[in-house]
Amino acid sequence: VAAFYFLALLGVGFRFFIESFVHTDWVLPPLASLVVALIFGSPALVPFLTMRSLAEERRLGTLETLLAAPVSTTAVVAGKWSASYLYFLLV
To answer: Would you name any one GO CC term (predicted)?
Structure first.
């Protein structure tokens, strides 16, 4: 339900954003500018989620076990980033 309202809000904001390019005298409403800021500002949030996930692994003491697995550190970080990005897209 929350995802539906979030996507509906993004859709309305995107419509106003595109409409502002068509009509040069039309001003972008504050709600649409907020949605545009969310769309273009969201990639900055994913690294923070990834860092928090890695810090939580370290705090719980499971990071050593994870890094001892037969995968590279880069693969672990890339997997955490992918999971954080997917989580952000779903929420």
So the answer is: plasma membrane
